[in-house]
């Protein structure tokens, strides 16, 4: 708040006008970037990956547009009801520690021990435990009085407790869902999130190869999946990443210059004794 007060009271009117306009523009730029980022993450990472895996690009765009209005309304309500910016920043850091830290830890370091079911259950558990401890900034009363409750605030580290419960839930539910699906207790049709046994075929094919599998792929053992061994050998190249070709790095086959270079390379590879010299004599 120091800069706006300096511009308002210690500078001429025209300087204050342009200075406050620049501050307002910077705030608006940050705000709309945050709203767009939250909407796009919901549309791409939640709606498409969890609810509608086969959603078209136009459908994703419409979901993003609706999400922009919803997030903007929620942000406006939050800005009008929360009196402290510092308190809002502290609460956001609190939620990141309680909800997102276990997810990030498991995905980065223990990827094989987590899946979508565990992540969703851990998210819900962390949110419920955190909200049950109360939040004075939002006017939420404490639903559970943890040890050390003094009548107004929680002295017990319930935020760390919520984080640990989320971490245990994530690992436990992930292991449980993997066990019931892989052991046959549940049919693959019940794998709604398609992350344990009902995995799409294209995801299986382009998965990251284990150690030693890259040489097998290039030797032609991937023929049953991709076709003949000659085709499989051409799939692994310098422009390929995890089985997908980057279109930006592909050469343009319609370029005449590239065709000319290809002809020169073929001509250079033919032995000199096999090259037929043109007949320069003409018959009268």
From TrEMBL:
Keywords of the record: Glycoprotein, Ion transport, Membrane, Neurotransmitter biosynthesis, Sodium, Sodium transport, Symport, Transmembrane, Transmembrane helix, Transport
Annotated membrane topology: Multi-pass membrane protein
Signal peptide (from-to): none
Region entry Disordered, spans: 263-284
Segments of skewed composition (Low complexity): 270-284
PROSITE patterns cross-referenced by the UniProt entry: NA_SOLUT_SYMP_3 (PS50283)
Molecular function terms from GO: choline:sodium symporter activity
Compartment(s) where it occurs, according to its Swiss-Prot or TrEMBL record: Membrane
GO CC annotation terms, alphabetical: plasma membrane
Membrane-crossing segments per the record: 14-39, 60-82, 88-108, 120-144, 156-176
GO BP, one annotated term: acetylcholine biosynthetic process
Protein family: Belongs to the sodium:solute symporter (SSF) (TC 2.A.21) family.
Protein name from the UniProt record: Uncharacterized protein
């Amino acid at each position: 708040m120091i800069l706006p007060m300096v511009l308002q009271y210690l500078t001429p009117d025209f300087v204050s006008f342009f200075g406050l306009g620049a501050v307002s523009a910077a705030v608006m730029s940050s705000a709309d970037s945050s709203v767009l980022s939250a909407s796009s993450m919901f549309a791409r990472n939640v709606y498409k990956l969890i609810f509608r895996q086969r959603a078209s690009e136009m459908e994703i765009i419409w979901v993003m547009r609706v999400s922009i209005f919803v997030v903007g309304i929620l942000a406006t309500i939050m800005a009008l009801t929360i009196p402290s910016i510092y308190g809002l920043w502290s609460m956001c850091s609190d939620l990141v520690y309680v909800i997102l830290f276990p997810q990030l830890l498991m995905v980065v370091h223990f990827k094989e021990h987590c899946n979508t079911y565990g992540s969703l259950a851990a998210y819900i558990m962390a949110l419920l435990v955190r909200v049950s401890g109360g939040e004075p900034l939002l006017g939420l009363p404490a639903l559970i009085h943890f040890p050390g409750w003094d009548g107004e605030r929680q002295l017990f580290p319930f935020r760390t407790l919520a984080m640990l419960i989320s971490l245990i839930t994530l690992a436990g539910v992930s292991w449980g869902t993997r066990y019931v699906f892989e052991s046959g207790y549940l049919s693959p049709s019940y794998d709604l999130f398609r992350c344990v046994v009902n995995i799409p075929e294209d995801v299986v094919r382009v998965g990251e190869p284990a150690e030693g599998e890259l040489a097998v792929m290039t030797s032609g053992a991937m023929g049953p999946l991709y076709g003949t061994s000659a085709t499989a050998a051409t799939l692994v190249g310098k422009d390929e990443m995890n089985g997908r070709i980057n279109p930006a790095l592909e050469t343009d086959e319609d370029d005449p210059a590239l065709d000319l270079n290809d002809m020169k390379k073929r001509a250079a590879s033919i032995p000199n004794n096999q090259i037929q010299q043109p007949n320069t004599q003409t018959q009268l």
